[in-house]
Amino acid sequence: MSIKKGSAPPRYDNAFKTGAVKMVTEQGRSIKETASDLGICVDTLRSWLKTSGVAPSDRVSRDNRRQRELETEIRTLRKQLAEKDEVIRILKKSVGILSTP
């Protein structure tokens, strides 16, 4: 389907607009990614976000995504640390060192 130059842009119902806004605000998806997935213009989605009272910024989404990545990394590192502590404890017992720092 091709859109002729000068023709009116497509109309979207309120449910579609609300769903698109929720994808960005509640699911933490980026504006660019959401617009691409829905087949709409990035500026259109930004306009809907602005109308709904949300600051249309990809920066917030990137910060949220980065925070989730860091939280995941922290959990992984804590698990690895606990495993290492357990190995050290077992090794100390095996050589007869029962004192812990």
- Measured as a percent range, the helix fraction is 55-70%
Radius of gyration: 25 Å
Percent of residues in β-strands: under 5%
Uncertain runs are: none
The average pLDDT value, as a whole number, equals 81
Distance between the termini: 72 Å
What's the total helix number? 4
Largest sheet: none
Structural class: mainly alpha
Query: Order of helices and strands, N to C?
Result: HHHH
Overall 3D shape: rod-shaped
In total, the number of strands is 0
Total tally of structural domains: 2
Task: Give the topology.
Layout: H1 14-25, H2 31-38, H3 42-51, H4 58-94
Helix pairs in contact: 2-3
Task: Walk me through this protein's architecture.
- 8% of the residues are buried.
- With 101 residues, the protein is mostly helical.
- It has 4 helices and no strands.
- Helices cover 66% and strands 0% of the residues.
In short:
The chain has 101 residues and is mostly helical. The protein is 66% helix and 0% strand.
Q: What keyword list fits this structure?
A:
101 residues; mainly alpha; 4 helices; 0% strand; rod-shaped
